């Protein structure tokens, strides 16, 4: 098609203007990919076996009943109060679509998960972003104050991607008192398993308490199944039914469902890995602080470095040291906790960055 000719198909202009989700860069073969908060461990044998025995020519069970039953048991809820998606990002999309139409507002902290703005824009709804506090934490009072008659959804991310900060149980319960109960609250707990601070809000203890709260979790991070795409939501049945209505049918594969079951059956091994990653995270954070970084205490499987306008340059330095980090605009760099072997290079790079920043 020549540049001077209008393309014939009329697409929604707001979608044409929308940038596609920018994934963390792939790593060269000798570099460490610490840009997507993935789990560095290879799948456990039980997961490999489950996938090897799966069916490919048949459709999966659309509702993922077996996995839902298992999760329902852990949360002490009914199966109808659990919903699966091809990653929790799919469920976020389904729920935002179910609640927010053009002209409606969706409130969330910023910076937070990079996918939120696009998911809201696709619905024709308006993002209302509330700046993260200087210490990387959600400003829940300001978020509550940002709610208007047009607000349909509020997203709370704990631990927050990319700052790593948590919302405490006390803060969250207080916040829920301030939110009208016709506004859907999504508590995004993608990284909850990495949290060791006992004051953290935990969606598992909140089920059945609020008619407008849905908790989102994933098998991508702690359970290491990012490539298979499976996440889940726990919340009131009437809300999850709406998500089922907006969902693309059959997108949670049988491989993903079997791998999730195998992971839950072998959780001890996986949570041991998570504990090791959390220890490594805390060691790296201490070393960074010794280098002079003022980085918020991390609670997920990643660390946030506020490199501001030097972000691209800083990412370049990490790259020269064989570390692929995630550069987020002119705000900062997010580095995932990965292989033990990546730590020495990571700290050499961070030292060079901190020395070269004005
Ligand atoms: N929520 C947050 C805060 C995330 O960082 C991510 C992944 N980066 C997700 C949700 C989505 O994860 P997935 O779709 O793999 O479950």
TrEMBL record:
Xref: SUPFAM superfamilies:
PLP-dependent transferases
What's the top EC group for this one? transferase
The domain of life is: Bacteria
Which cofactors, by name? pyridoxal 5'-phosphate
Q: Which residues form a coiled coil?
A: none
The record's annotation in NCBIfam families points to:
PRK03321.1
The protein's name in its UniProt record:
Histidinol-phosphate transaminase
């Amino acid at each position: 098609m020549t540049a001077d000719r209008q393309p014939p198909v009329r697409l929604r202009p707001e979608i044409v203007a929308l940038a596609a989700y920018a994934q963390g860069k792939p790593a060269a073969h000798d570099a460490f990919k610490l840009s997507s908060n993935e789990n560095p461990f290879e799948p456990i044998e039980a997961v490999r076996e489950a996938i090897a025995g799966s069916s490919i020519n048949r459709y999966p069970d659309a509702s993922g009943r077996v996995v839902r039953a298992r999760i329902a048991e852990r949360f002490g809820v009914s199966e109808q109060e659990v919903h699966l998606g091809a990653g929790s990002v799919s469920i976020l999309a389904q729920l935002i679509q179910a609640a927010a139409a053009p002209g409606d507002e969706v409130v969330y902290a910023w910076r937070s998960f990079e996918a939120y703005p696009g998911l809201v824009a696709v619905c024709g709804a308006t993002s209302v972003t509330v700046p993260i506090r200087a210490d990387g934490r959600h400003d829940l009072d300001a978020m509550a104050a940002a709610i208007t008659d047009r607000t349909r959804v509020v997203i709370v991310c704990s631990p927050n991607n990319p700052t790593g900060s948590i919302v405490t149980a006390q803060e969250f319960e207080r916040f829920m008192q301030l939110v009208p109960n016709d506004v859907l609250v999504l508590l995004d707990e993608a990284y909850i398993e990495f949290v060791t601070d006992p004051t953290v809000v935990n969606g598992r203890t909140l089920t059945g308490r609020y008619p407008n709260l849905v908790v989102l979790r994933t098998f991508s991070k702690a359970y290491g199944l990012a490539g298979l795409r499976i996440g889940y939501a726990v919340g009131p049945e009437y809300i999850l039914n709406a998500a089922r209505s907006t969902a693309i049918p059959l997108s949670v594969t049988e491989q993903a469902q079997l791998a999730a079951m195998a992971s839950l059956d072998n959780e001890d091994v996986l949570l041991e890995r998570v504990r090791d990653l959390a220890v490594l995270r805390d060691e790296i954070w201490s070393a960074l602080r010794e280098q002079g970084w003022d980085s918020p205490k991390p609670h997920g499987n990643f660390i946030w470095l506020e490199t501001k306008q030097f972000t691209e340059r800083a990412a370049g330095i990490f790259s020269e040291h064989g570390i692929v980090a995630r550069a987020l605009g002119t705000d900062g760099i997010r580095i995932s906790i990965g292989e033990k072997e990546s730590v020495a290079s990571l700290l050499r790079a961070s030292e060079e960055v901190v020395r070269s920043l004005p």
